[in-house]
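Standup notes, protein team

Yesterday: finished cleaning the Candidatus Syntropharchaeum butanivorans set.
Today: Plastocyanin structure.
Blockers: none.

Input for Plastocyanin:
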Amino acid sequence: MIAVSQEMDRLIRVTVILACIIGAIVAAFLIWVSFQESYSALYIYPDSYSNYVRPGDTVSFVYGVRSFETKETKYNLRIYLGNELKKEKEFWLKSGETREETEMIVLPVNVTFPVEVKLVLEANGRKYDVHFWLKEKD
């Protein structure tokens, strides 16, 4: 009877120790996962456009998106000229992937200078934006 009781105590002790070890491993993993930095980068190559233009000109520029997210991510990109939405795009990138593209916007003949070209990127509930200004060429 005493041997059975001692065996049961040893079994309970081993079970408690294993449960603590497994719990610590799971907790450490969950903490590690929650601290993994997840973000994206949106950029415009500064040498890819001219700031001085005339009404009716076509403005071209090169933008890029780099994913540092922890999983494949859906992106929504909006391109504005002033307050007017000119283009909207949706695409997916895997972690570590980069998307670069040349974009063109035709300026209206009645555009008021200076005017801002703004890119707004949405991913995983976060917004990123970049912009540059256009001025009238003399």
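Follow-up from PR in the comments: The two ends are 103 Å apart (CA to CA).
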